[in-house]
Amino acid sequence: MKNQRNAIVWALVSWLVRRWVRQRTARVTGIAGGAARPGRVRSVLGAVALVGILAGAFVAWRRLSSPSSEMPDLEEAPVGMA
């Protein structure tokens, strides 16, 4: 009975250690099974798209809210080339 208990304990311990090593390796290298995970690639692309949208919205807001974007009065507008 003692040998059977030891075998079960060693099997559980070895499984936990292998699992921990796999997770640690994947976390350190950023890869799982030699290739990037599709979920991670999708997350990175989504983050890049979100940053691009926010940057574009900020630039548009700055341009539209600046005083130079307002239409000049007709009296101040140049009539022709000098």
Write the SSE topology.
Layout: H1 2-29, H2 38-65
Helix count?
Answer: 2
Helix/strand-derived category reads mainly alpha
DSSP strand count: 0
**Share of helical residues:** 55-70%
Please tell me the overall pLDDT: 77
Poorly predicted runs: none
Quaternary structure classification: single chain
Computed over alpha carbons, the radius of gyration is: 31 Å
What is the makeup of the main sheet?
A: none
Number of domains: 2
Pattern of helices and strands: HH
| Coarse shape | rod-shaped
Straight-line N-to-C gap: 106 Å
Could you tell me the strand content as a percent range?
under 5%
Structural description of this entry:
With 82 residues, this protein is mainly alpha-helical. It has two domains: 1-32; 36-67. Helices cover 68% and strands 0% of the residues. It is built from two helices and no strands. The protein has helices spanning 2-29, 38-65. The model has no long low-confidence stretch (mean pLDDT 77).
In short:
It contains two helices and no strands. With 82 residues, the protein is mainly alpha-helical.
Tags for this model:
82 residues, mainly alpha, 2 domains, 2 helices
